[in-house]
Amino acid sequence: MILAGTALNVLTVAAGSLLGAFFGSRIPVRISRIVFQAIGLFTLLIGMSMALKTQRILIPVFSLILGSALGEWLDLDAAIGRLGAWVKGRTNAAPGTNAGAATFSEGMITAFLLFCVGSMTILGAFEEGTRGDSSLLITKAVMDGFSSLALASALGIGVLFSIVPLLVFQGGLTLAAAGLGEFIPLPVIAEMSAVGGLMLLGLGLSILEIKKIKVVNMLPALLVGALLAALIR
Q: Is 141:12 a contact under the CB 8 Å cutoff?
């Protein structure tokens, strides 16, 4: 079912935000840590299963190398960081804004940037839109649920209202991918999925704190993979 992953994501963020706002930071750190470790292992599993869908092993290899080099040259990770800082700065610096409203805005903006500006959002929307596979967005939904709980305990109920831009942005990406999927040949989708799987392996390593990898800088690899798969048949 299309948008199933996004719908679950909205529900988990809403539940986490409400729990965090009303109960505060009462969940032990050790519990949160092991839950995220479990999510990291599951992310590795999804990434491996996606990577193995390739029919031409050299396509994801060269796609990741060329795409990562391009993303690092553009420094997409730093650009997204600057965008987030600019949005938060513009929101909190509004004249005449009282402390309560500023905290509310900060909670909403911070949560939106955390939940929507990342490789998992784009890869998950692509998988759900083109293949009808919501597993990656379901994993993201669980992660966002715990993250929203922690954020809401610190920044308040404003985190809850991030579900509106989350639904519009992530749902819009999924619908766009579904529309494009009708025109993209299945072999191209398979290779793009394999490239995305390799990126998820990097994300899983980052979640497990084994090695910090700038997965956002690898996003151009998806486009390179699509081009190579279309040219090499």
A: yes
- Say how many residues make up the chain: 233
Q: How far apart are CA 86 and CA 98, in angstroms?
A: 19
**Domain spans in the chain, listed from the N-terminal domain onward:** 4-231
Distance CA 166, CA 163 (A): 5
Beta-carbon contacts of residue 212 (< 8 Å; ≥ 6 apart): 206
Question: Is the pLDDT reported for residue 175 higher than 90?
Answer: yes
- What are the pLDDT digits (tens) for 94-128? 444 455 555 667 677 778 777 886 678 888 998 89
Asked whether the beta carbons of 125 and 179 are under 8 A apart, the reply is no
| Residue 123 to residue 177: CA distance in whole angstroms | 10
Tokens of 161: 């209202």
Q: How far apart are CA 130 and CA 182, in angstroms?
A: 8
